[in-house]
Automatic annotation (TrEMBL), chains A, B:
It catalyses: an N-(acyl)-sphingosylphosphocholine + H2O = an N-acyl-sphingoid base + phosphocholine + H(+); 1-hexadecanoyl-sn-glycero-3-phosphocholine + H2O = 1-hexadecanoyl-sn-glycerol + phosphocholine + H(+); 1-O-hexadecyl-sn-glycero-3-phosphocholine + H2O = 1-O-hexadecyl-sn-glycerol + phosphocholine + H(+); a sphingosylphosphocholine + H2O = a sphingoid base + phosphocholine + H(+). It is a multi-pass membrane protein. The chain crosses the membrane at residues 328-348, 360-380. Belongs to the neutral sphingomyelinase family. GO terms for cellular component: membrane. PANTHER family: PHOSPHODIESTERASE, PUTATIVE-RELATED, SPHINGOMYELINASE FAMILY MEMBER. GO terms for biological process: sphingolipid metabolic process. Keywords: Hydrolase, Lipid metabolism, Magnesium, Membrane, Metal-binding, Sphingolipid metabolism, Transmembrane, Transmembrane helix. This is Sphingomyelin phosphodiesterase 2. The keyword Protein biosynthesis does not apply. Its EC number is 3.1.4.12.
């Protein structure tokens, strides 16, 4: 294939933080994001946390001329928040919902209700098949005691597996999203190691933006400065990753992040910084062969590390399931006892000091609520246990295959 | 590639109906299935409804010598019930859980608790990459008034999309399972039309077994004869489907089903009949080109028909969500009213005829339970609505792509 000059692709990625009634200056910011996308004319805009479909429709209406193709991925109670605007036709889409995504009773965190997922779009640009993935993983609320780490590791594993299994027909793979993982975290090492995806920040020759490529920075007025205290420069959790397959190589010509405010404005687009990557796609020189087929021996350690995290999560989930089962049994016993007492009073076996009726009823109300809730939670944690066991088993199989490959090299 | 003689593959598929404490003669039948698999030495055995991991482990232990490789897919509360025994190494596995799968409150049906899914196994046989899919879709409990039809259509669509997106690297695609759809149903026409999979029963030259290839037959002693009354010959809902990609063609040399009892025994393996396909894989002759790339104009009608079913489901789900929302609001109002009455009696504003305390408490117990349940169901049906909307949108996009392809032909 002759491509002269090589294909240049400008990709915009942003976690928009657009929660109705909760996010500050949401409407102004959505307006601002729409204006910027319209003016800049990127090839692709990958957005996360566009929770309201009304906001998506507003953007879509504004951007029809510049981005005639777009897609919103629906899932969960609120919606996945994931959407994509494209200058090129979207040929097909597919959604994979992560099997684990926090807990429905953690209402203050709310990730469970979002149905976190990875969306795949197949886009053909100048005859090159792009598999574009957009995702948003479970948030990290407390780094020191991260209760969601096993779920995030499972999500990273499922993301890696999903990309590997669905990208065989692609020429170029592109992943953008808020991965909620620092660059050195086990999940991102697993994702990169397993898929061979390259990090635009690590690979680019020209970078402009926040130091270390951070995308949550203290300079952003919507950021809780206290939460970022252990990281004075901020943290990098939003990524544009890519790889060329078979006949193509991809390079990141330049990478830009916003630096606390939208360019030329007094407010930022979001509480996250936008990541803008300019990628260059050109045909692979035959001699160099296909990339990504070599197995790095370090990957074995990474999969092992991830597997340990999954095991820790499994242990916790089993404990939680056990407590809920025990609670359900206790509530059931109490209800049975009350039923027996009620029956005995009906047939005239009144005890000398009857239990006050009001307290009696209140107690049965409480027992019923506890029974119902703990039964639902028992079922929920059983599903969690099954999924963690399944992932652990998959990782074991993957490790075996890896070791076989390494020993035959 | 030179393959002389061509590769012959014997595939065994069975819905094992192995529900602990509920399925009749479960242990005997699992023993019998294990014995048959051991004696016959198939290349692949695709099993469904092995709900108990203990049964899987028993089979695994028995079959280690003959089938050194096996995998059990974990999901849902009970487990997916899907497992595979293979004579050849399993290189990788991946699980996709269907986004819709019945209702948790339909305890008598219980499909929701199984976490219905499609499992993918990648197996290399004589240098040929097989993508083997095993699945079990939502059951049909009443054909005339099938409340689960929209969910099953969504599952068929997700199955078709999953196969299409994950099979690009395969030489041969093989799908076995209990699809719970008659051969003419919209879901199976959608699945076959979208993926280009061929039906071993329709394609084979040599068939031996129940008339019309039925896999639920009145001759089976575990079958409820009344339920099969409209179909005197039985129905065909278990399938082995296949296709060759790029360099290979697959043919079904022969297909056999059991006929109500296990061969030479007095009891059947299960309430379903086993399907045994002998497939022949050989290199494609270059001149004939790759199959499956041509688009059939009828597919547009099939996708449209499926989309209509999804819309019907969407309408029902929206109505159910609305009723649950209304019920939650009513229960909340009742609780607020009771709280106000309770407070007024506390501050001494006793009404002349006070409400009996016991009935008062019982009513609040009822209101609390109703409030909790209807809130949970509201959330559940909201997720259902989102997924149906998402599928409908995906189908719209697919139709557009189909029509573009057809008009450019």
């Amino acid at each position: 294939m002759d491509m002269d000059p090589p294909l240049q692709l400008r990709v915009f990625n942003l976690n928009c933080w657009a929660i109705r009634y909760l996010s500050k200056l949401r409407q102004e910011r959505i307006g601002l994001i729409g204006d910027t996308l319209g003016q800049e004319g990127f090839d692709l805009a990958l957005l996360q946390e566009v929770w309201s479909e009304r906001d998506y429709c507003e953007l879509k209406q504004k951007l029809t001329a510049c981005y005639p193709y777009s897609h919103y991925f629906k899932s969960g109670v609120i919606g996945s928040g994931l959407c994509v605007f494209s200058r090129y036709p979207i040929l097909d889409t597919f959604l994979y919902q992560y099997s684990l995504n926090g807990y429905p009773y953690m209402l203050q965190h709310g990730d469970w209700f979002c149905g976190k997922a990875v969306g795949l779009l197949i886009i053909k640009i100048c005859g090159i098949i792009f598999h574009v993935y957009v995702t948003h993983l479970h948030a990290e609320y407390c780094r020191d005691k991260d209760a969601y780490l096993p779920h995030r590791v499972v999500q990273a594993w499922e993301l890696a597996q999903f990309i590997q299994h669905t990208s065989k027909g692609a020429d170029v793979v592109l992943l953008g999203g808020d991965l909620n993982m620092h660059p050195g975290d086990v999940g991102i090492r697993l994702l990169r190691g397993w898929t061979g995806l390259r990090d635009s920040f690590a690979d680019t020759e020209r970078f402009e933006g926040c130091e270390d490529g951070c995308t949550l920075v203290p300079a952003n007025c919507f950021i809780n400065k206290e939460e970022l205290q252990p990281f004075p420069l901020g943290i990098r959790i939003d990524y544009v990753l890519y790889k060329g397959l078979s006949r193509f190589v991809v390079k990141c010509d330049s990478l830009v992040t916003t630096t606390g405010t939208a360019p030329g404005k007094s407010i930022p687009y979001s509480d996250h910084e936008a990541v803008i990557a300019t990628l260059c796609v050109k045909p692979r020189e035959e001699a160099k062969g296909s990339s990504g087929s070599a197995v790095e021996p370090e990957l074995v350690d990474v999969v092992n590390e991830a597997r340990t995290e999954v095991r820790v999560g499994l242990h916790t989930a089993e404990r939680q399931r056990y407590s809920n089962g025990r609670m359900a049994i206790l509530a059931l016993l109490l209800l049975l006892l009350q039923a027996a007492m009620g029956l005995s009073s009906l047939v005239g076996w009144d005890s000398p000091q009857p239990f006050p009726k009001f307290s009696f009823s209140l107690l049965s109300l409480l027992a019923t609520v506890v029974l119902l809730l703990s039964m639902v939670l028992y079922v929920f944690h059983t599903i969690e246990v099954k999924m963690l066991q399944g992932t652990e088993e998959q990782m074991r199989l993957a490790l075996q295959a890896l070791q076989d490959k390494l020993s035959s090299m």
